[in-house]
Amino acid sequence: QVQLLESGGGLVQAGGSLRISCVTSGSFFRITSMGWYRQAPGKQRELVATITDDLSTNYVDSVKGRFTISRDNAKNTVYLQMNSLKPEDTAVYYCNANYQTSLGTRNYWGQGTQVTVSS
């Protein structure tokens, strides 16, 4: 079994910055891609950013130039640095990752961390 635990969410004023983290634990051989998704009230969950095991990154257009995804493989951790935050960034942010395990390729989600940006 694999677990993902997000942290670092909170309340910040518009224009501010926040860094959220997601540490993974459990039994697996390798983490391939990792990513952050978000879900605002009344909206569908959307992809924010992804990073592969060769550190290729991808961002949704609305966060390009403001958010940076990174990972520390030694710590099994993925980060999302969020700068120039806007009220529309308010959402629950979820960590997601793909793993190679003894049972094959598996995908897991974290429980989410709330990010609230006040205007």
What does this structure look like?
With 119 residues, this protein is mainly beta. The protein is built from no helices and eleven strands. Strands 2, 4, 5, 6, 9, 10 and 11 form a seven-stranded mixed beta sheet that branches. The protein starts with a strand and ends with a strand.
Write the layout of secondary structure elements.
Layout: E1 2-7, E2 10-13, E3 18-26, E4 30-39, E5 46-51, E6 57-59, E7 67-72, E8 77-82, E9 91-101, E10 104-109, E11 113-118
Parallel strand pairs: 2-11
Antiparallel strand pairs: 1-3, 3-8, 4-5, 4-9, 5-6, 7-8, 9-10, 9-11
Overview in brief:
The protein is an all-beta fold. The protein has strands at residues 2-7, 10-13, 18-26, 30-39, 46-51, 57-59, 67-72, 77-82, 91-101, 104-109, 113-118.
Percent in strands: over 45%
Rg over alpha carbons? 14 Å
- The global form is elongated
Q: Please give the number of β-strands.
A: 11
User: What ranges have pLDDT less than 50 throughout 5 or more consecutive residues?
Assistant: none
SSE class: mainly beta
Order of helices and strands: EEEEEEEEEEE
Please bin the fraction of helical residues.
under 10%
What's the overall average pLDDT, rounded? 96
Termini separation comes to 40 Å
Helical region count?
A: 0
Q: How is the main sheet built?
A: 7 strands, mixed
